[in-house]
Design a protein that fits this description.
The strands form 2 sheets. Strands 8-7-6-5-2-1-9-10 form an 8-stranded mixed beta sheet, with helices on both faces. By secondary structure, the chain is of the alpha/beta class. The model has no long low-confidence stretch (mean pLDDT 95). It has 10 helices and 10 strands.
């Protein structure tokens, strides 16, 4: 991370903590909900299958930037399906950088060739070893690992949503992240139970066991891009929600924290690690602040 970016984020954090501000710093733009997969845990793919035009996405980028957002994510659906005439996902990332966003990340299922060195991080969904991953996402594991091996940059971070199918595969994914070329780290979430995927949710005891395994792997040197100080809050689901420092933009509609805020009762069952980490950070939790400094400086 550049020193200028670090100083910007530090200033934002200090002002937010001291003055209890609710200004956003992290924004996500949904470029499409079209996806080539039908994953068992996903409730938001192919609802409209609309690919939003470049002009609209650029206008949304301007709006988020003017709101103060400086960390930008492009999400889907599947982001690498996005195209508008000659424009591709790379054009969105390059334009975001030109516009002044300090960190620009992309989320993908990894089934398309990964040639996007301009992104700071590519968060690539890997949901277990071959068996667990393929049970959730179809027969895609080998294709994904081949794409990771052939990626043109080392900016990949595995992104695993832990659920009833893959809850025993945390160690496998940690070791794969540690031992695979072009992968910097792995980031975890717990499954957030939309009404149609409730059966995949973990119990408190299962979450606790997963967190113990993640900590064990961190202590063994696995590159985990999460803050273990937030784990007890995630297990108990007693961190503040929603996170006002994060916003999502989809087809002109702005949501605080995430799209799931519109589902009654879902915030109380949130499994997103970053939500716990950011809300605790901006409440002035000293352990979270110190741990985030070390983690972000290491992996971004």
């Amino acid at each position: 991370m550049k020193l200028s970016s670090f100083l910007y984020f530090a200033n934002f954090g200090i002002r937010t903590v001291l003055f209890r501000k609710r200004n956003p710093i992290l924004g996500t733009i949904i470029v499409t909900d079209k996806c080539n997969l039908k994953c068992k845990h996903c409730s938001v793919n192919n609802i409209t299958a609309v690919v939003y035009p470049y002009r609209q996405i650029k206008a949304e980028m301007v709006k988020l930037y003017d709101m103060g957002v400086r960390i930008l994510f492009f999400c889907g659906g599947e982001t690498f399906l996005w195209k508008d005439r000659e424009k591709t996902l790379r054009d969105l990332v390059v334009e975001a950088k030109r516009m002044g966003f300090l960190i620009v990340n992309v989320v993908t299922n990894g089934t398309f060739p990964i040639d996007l060195p301009e992104a700071d991080l590519i968060l690539l969904s890997l949901d277990g070893g071959r068996k667990e991953h393929n049970e959730i996402r179809g027969d895609t594991y080998d294709v994904i690992m081949e794409n990771v091996k052939n990626a043109t940059s080392d900016n990949i971070c595995f992104y695993m949503a832990i659920n009833q199918i893959n809850k025993y595969a945390v160690q496998d994914v940690c070791l794969t992240a540690r031992d695979t070329k072009n992968v910097r780290a792995v980031s975890f979430n717990f499954h957030t139970p939309y009404p149609d995927t409730r059966e995949l949710a973990l119990s408190r005891e299962e979450k606790e066991a997963c967190c113990r395994k993640i900590v064990q792997m961190m202590e063994a040197g696995a590159p985990v891009f999460n803050l273990k100080s937030a784990f007890p809050y995630l297990v108990r689901n007693d961190f503040p929600t929603p996170c006002h420092q994060c916003v999502v933009m989809e087809n002109g509609r702005l949501s605080t924290c995430g799209r799931c805020i519109a589902v009654p009762g879902l915030c109380e069952k949130c499994g997103y690690f970053f939500v716990a980490e950011y809300t605790l950070l901006f409440r002035g939790n000293v352990r979270i602040i110190l741990e985030m400094l070390g983690t972000y400086l290491k992996y971004i």
